[in-house]
């Protein structure tokens, strides 16, 4: 039997029951998010589907969730491995009243909410790797993909997509990610109720989103800082057209990464791919 068939069989054996969306919805205490759930057994990408819904005028708070994705996407066009029934893959439609320049705050807000939820389920606190990764021991546990549509007037919608490796056994991860990924199960040695996790995460997102709508990112900046794993660390950042080396200093009030480069200049990085140097 080919190795890929074996992995598919083992994954099926280790996969839990399908998500019970009623269980999430019935006990959800959230003001804005989780107003409606659209559940799919398989989908191309929850972000793509949510985007289509938003284009058709869907309201803020709708959640698109799938057991598996055939074209799960990460930042920079990367593939997000999305096997069925073990993890969480979902996207929420947001219509924030923010100028487009402040929209990156949504990613930072989501990282805080995700880290706060994960702390309940993990033996060690997670770390935020700017801008959108959640790591433990340098290995990726969850990722955030925000996609925005805006015009000169403001933001029309933001699709907040989140993938969490929850009950995914390390030995069933494909080679392409096994060395650099982890899961809540691998860290806690416990199978987690996906419904309980997602309910808590939507509630934490709802609360953090409410906080930044009220007073901006400043409201949660100190919590973001407490999870920030790069301060004082040497990093390599791939920008669109160049690579910069330096020491990460923190973020500014708009959520840009502050980097002291090797020439001693303070640079403000809005978008880039960060690698931690040993
Ligand atoms: C990253 O780490 O680069 C972001 C990964 C985001 C993955 C999630 S899974 C649900 C949603 N749908 C997608 O296609 N991507 C996001």
Characterize the structure shown.
There is one protein chain. The protein is an alpha+beta fold. It has 8 helices and 12 strands. The longest helix is centred in the last third of the chain and has 22 residues, at 194-215. The protein is globular, with a radius of gyration of 18 Å. 39% of the residues are buried. The structure holds biotin.
Counting helices, strands and paired strands, the structural category is alpha+beta
- Give the H and E element order: HHEHEEHEEEEHHHHEEEEE
Mean pLDDT, nearest integer?
Answer: 92
Tell me how many strands there are: 12
Q: List low-pLDDT spans.
A: none
Number of helices: 8
Termini distance?
Answer: 41 Å
Overall helicity: 25-40%
- Full CATH superfamily name of the largest domain: Bira Bifunctional Protein, Domain 2
What is the CATH level 1 assignment of the largest domain? Alpha Beta
What's the architecture of the largest domain, going by CATH?
A: 2-Layer Sandwich
Give the strand line-up of the largest sheet.
1-2-3-7-6-5-4
Bound molecules: biotin
Backbone shape: globular
Percent of residues in β-strands: 25-35%
Number of domains: 2
CATH topology of the largest domain: BirA Bifunctional Protein, domain 2
Major sheet, described briefly?
7 strands, mixed
The whole-angstrom Rg is 18 Å
List the helices and strands and how they pair.
Layout: H1 3-14, H2 21-26, E1 36-43, H3 46-55, E2 62-69, E3 88-94, H4 104-121, E4 127-129, E5 133-136, E6 139-151, E7 154-164, H5 175-178, H6 184-188, H7 194-215, H8 218-227, E8 234-238, E9 243-251, E10 257-261, E11 266-269, E12 273-276
Parallel strand pairs: 1-2
Antiparallel strand pairs: 2-3, 3-7, 4-5, 5-6, 6-7, 8-9, 8-12, 9-10, 10-11
